[in-house]
Sequence to fold (187 residues):
Amino acid sequence: MKHRQLIDFLEVIGKLKTYTRHVWDSNRRQESVADHCWRLSVMALLVAEKFPHLDFNKIIRMCLIHDFGEALTGDIPSFYKTESDKKKEDLAVDDLLKLLPEGLAAEFSELFVEMEELKTEEAKLFKALDRLEAIASHNESPLDTWLELEYTENLVYGNENVGFSEYLTKLRDILREDSIRKIESGE
Fold:
């Protein structure tokens, strides 16, 4: 990758550090998209031993790039995202990938297709972890920052993504218990 090309691309995706998500951390700082991508990547590293047959190089790449489009569109919470929003984000990804060398752009494009189709075990694990990280983040945020729908959404979000793994199902159950405790305590 040429030096200028690298710097220009980093400048664009650097916006992920400033674009916020709809969740706050325990210090009442609104989480950035980059915060989410980083912690999701760490989460994938931490569960790798539970899935030794999977390609974690690919999964970490998915975790790191999955929100690239939001560098141009900003974040829209999944429960508000419309088909039109999804199309705008897909076009933003296409525009971003044009800034990369052809081979890297093709590799990332293939990963985006794989993540969208959810046919491979790697894509399924990535998507489950993406959902679980969001729940964990909400559980850490002050309850007064939750939207009304999150009181129910946090109890079911990601359920459809974890069924292929006993380990992830148990993790989802524990996160649900944490959500219930948080809601019941009012904190």
Summary: The chain has a mean pLDDT of 95. The radius of gyration is 17 Å.
